[in-house]
Amino acid sequence: MENPEIFGELEVRFIQPYQAKKSYECPGCNRSIDEGIGHVVVVPVESPDLRRHWHRGCWEKKSV
Q1: Angle subtended at Cα 45 by Cα 43 and Cα 51, rounded to the nearest 5 degrees
Q2: Does the residue 34 lie in any domain?
Q3: Cα 45 to chain center, whole Å?
Q4: By CB neighbour count within 10 A (0-12 exposed, 13-18 middle, 19+ buried), where does 14 fall?
Q5: Which residue range is the domain that position 59 belongs to?
Q6: Which of 59, 47, 45, 55 has its CA nearest to residue 3?
Q7: Residue 51, in any domain of the structure
Q8: At residue 61, does pLDDT exceed 80?
Q9: Do 58 and 26 touch, CB atoms closer than 8 A?
Q10: Domain tally for the chain?
Q11: Residues 34-56: b if buried by 16+ CB within 10 A, e if exposed
C-alpha cells in the first residue's frame, strides 16, 4: 500500500523503539523495520485492517 491516502482519512501514530516488538516491511522502501526501531503506523480510518508500518523517513519523504 504505497498510497494509503486513497482510502480517505488516515491516522498516523509514532511507535517508540521500546514499543516495537515485531519486525515489519516498509511499503515505502520494501526494507525491514527491525524490532526495537521507532517507526510510524499508518491506519486508514475506514479500513483499519489495511494498516501499514513505515520507516519514519520513508513516510515523511512520501508526504512532501
Answers
A1: 20
A2: yes
A3: 14
A4: exposed
A5: 11-63
A6: 59
A7: yes
A8: yes
A9: yes
A10: 1
A11: eeeeebbbbbbeeeeeeebbbbb
**pLDDT for the residue 8:** 76
* 3-class SS letters over the chain: CCCHHHHCCEEEEEECHHHCCCCEECCCCCCEECCCCCEEEEEECCCHHHCEEECHHHHHHHHC
pLDDT band at 62 (very low <50, low <70, confident <90, very high): confident
- Report which of 40, 34, 38, 44 is spatially closest to residue 62, judged by C-alpha positions: 40
CA–CA dist 40, 28 (Å, integer): 12
pTM over 0.70: yes
Q: Which three cell numbers stand for residue 51?
A: 494498516
- Amino acid, single-letter form, for residue 39: H
